[in-house]
């Protein structure tokens, strides 16, 4: 019975490797965002003579949005892999090791991800507000939904951070 239990627990522990292809898929998605970024940057540079200030601002906000999503992907890829799959060999002493990685765990990762989502949502909301002032295909209903979604992200982040703080406080007591 003990050998069966040992093999079953080994299989359960080994199952974490099923997540590795998911992180590889996110790396491919990040590559897609790099291509999208380059296309938008080319659009900005090639349109320098005819783009108006509002159009330039919207394109730049789009570029910032792509960078923030890429940052979110890096946090999920590296932080998630290190937290849930395996330590990355040689990363401890690597000169370019991200500072935030030294104190990342599942709770910290959740808070960081929720803050990144709020930042991305803020950029989208700003783009929507700017587009609404020029009336470029923005409905008041769409603005209301984006605002509601943004507020939901804010409330969720506060609840996640508070819950994580409560959990850490409870664990420190024992």
Walk me through the structure.
- With 174 residues, the chain is mainly α.
- The chain has one domain.
- Helices cover 78% and strands 0% of the residues.
- It has five helices and no strands.
- It has helices at residues 2-14, 20-46, 53-85, 106-134, 140-173.
- α4 runs antiparallel to α5 (140-173).
- The longest helix is centred in the C-terminal third of the chain and has 34 residues, at 140-173.
- The chain starts with a helix and ends with a helix.
- The mean pLDDT is 84.
Terminal-residue CA separation: 33 Å
Question: How many discrete structural domains?
Answer: 1
Give me the count of strands. Answer: 0
Question: What spatial form do the alpha-carbon principal axes imply?
Answer: elongated
Using only C-alpha atoms, the radius of gyration works out to 21 Å
| Poorly predicted spans | none
Average pLDDT works out at 84
Structural class: mainly alpha
Q: Could you estimate the helical fraction of the residues in percent? A: over 70%
N-to-C SSE string, H for helix and E for strand = HHHHH
Strand content: under 5%
Number of alpha- plus pi-helical segments: 5
Largest β-sheet summary: none
